[in-house]
Amino acid sequence: MPSQLPHLLWIRTFEACARHLSFARAADELALTPAAVGQHIRHLEARLGFVLFERLPRGIRLTGIGRAYAPMVTGMLNDFSAATVALFGTQGETSVTLRCVASFASLALPPILHAFRQNYPEIAVQVHTSIWNDDPDNARADLEIRYGNGTWHDHDVLPLSPGISYPVCPPGTDFGDDQSATLRTLAQSAPIQILGMENLWRKLALALDWAETATNAGCIVDTSAIAIELVAAGDGCAIIDANLCGLHLARGLVARPPDIVLHHEQRHYILVPRSRNTTRPEVIILRDWIRTSLTTG
Q1: What pLDDT does 17 receive?
Q2: Is residue 275 located within the same domain as residue 129?
């Protein structure tokens, strides 16, 4: 109930203190005195009935309950700010820098950004691509899309896909009554391997009880975008993340056995770096737009 909620000013003060781990730096950000910041935190702790910070001789430290509360508060403030901008707009044009793995940028992102620009023309999106997640330019991005296992502790991380890939084959492939046998024959003659995902053919072979000879590499490339274009040209078959092959499948540029799906741990994630002092509402708006587009698309 609203009457049970702490004062919003206390919540904002807590978020700044949790981020800076300093009453003084939080006071500078909020244009308050350190004494006022300390008072807000004491009022909040009294309302909640828990101590949120340990007062140390030099600085402060979050307690266990404070560490659990901080990301909830940050998420609530970010969502509130984003909802306000989404409803009332921004004052003039603003921009978001999105760092994105190259295959996602070319195969999944264009229709999502087109629709986003139709709805938010005042938010300019700058897209930069990389192949590998450890690209040094990633540090300058407001938002990132990466592929992996989700363990990037310096970011707030949300999944974009369920970890599903499809084996895709040249257009017009007739899989017949035994889809596994047809796919195995194609995979034995011309399997395309994607660097960083070399184990997917092996996992599929194990799932379908194929012999190990079915996993030999015919061609090795460094992006899914190259792999799926090779398949579309009739030069082999590849295993492609479900987020990346929808357009090619819909246009008949590649084919897939309808009953064969590979589940795996790696997937696409969208990340917001925690190094920012604050997360701008337009960043959250774009993040949520991308997630919703992939869920409902």
Answers
A1: 92
A2: yes
